[in-house]
Amino acid sequence: MLVAVGVLALVLARSLAVSLPAVAVLALGGNVAIAASQAGLAQHHGPAASAAVTEANGVGSSIGLVGALAAGACVAIGWGWRPAVAVTIAITLLTAWA
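RESULT FIELD:
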């Protein structure tokens, strides 16, 4: 929820005074999501928790790389950075669906 609120505020922000707190909310939401997912994976996988968390970190790193490349591509074709953030949301939703 915090990630969604942070992204929405960042995309709609028209000044630095609004975008900086939006990034702070987004970062807080991301940290909470990472911490909660690691604990959930550890609880769900029991003895295989270390392998599951390691695999999840690898997948997360890959998604982070693809998101940054997609954002750069959006900026390069002239869409700007705001639609680039929305594109990373779409990539995240596609990944969750898959």
